[in-house]
Amino acid sequence: MEIGYTKLKQTKRAFRIWIEGNKLVRSGFDTNQEFRAYYFPHFISLISSNYLLKGYKSFEKLYIIDKTTHIANLQVSGAKRNGSHRPIIDLHNQKVGEVFQPNQLIKIIYDKDQITIIGATNDE
Fold first, then answer.
1. Which domain holds residue 16?
2. pTM score, two decimals?
3. Which residue in 13, 20, 41, 89 has the most C-beta neighbors within 10 A?
């Protein structure tokens, strides 16, 4: 498990959480790979398509997934920086703003085939 931090950004049209780099690859999220984003009231969970081997339903059994839980099927984008490949997850939508506040410190927990995004305290 790895941990990273960022701040929620507010743009003209929505809210944004930008995650990039090798931590994504080590967690099973590489360029062009599909993943599913679950927007819960106090956190966001990203599940890699590698989890499909177990099935998304096994994840969904751990949490109460109902009609109020927003689910999005997304894909990891990518770019090159100084000739090096870097995967990018760009969560840019209004739902992010329903979970977190603008400029809030965000804690990103990288696990195998899963990334959890939660609010962090300034003490962390």
1. 2-119
2. 0.86
3. 89
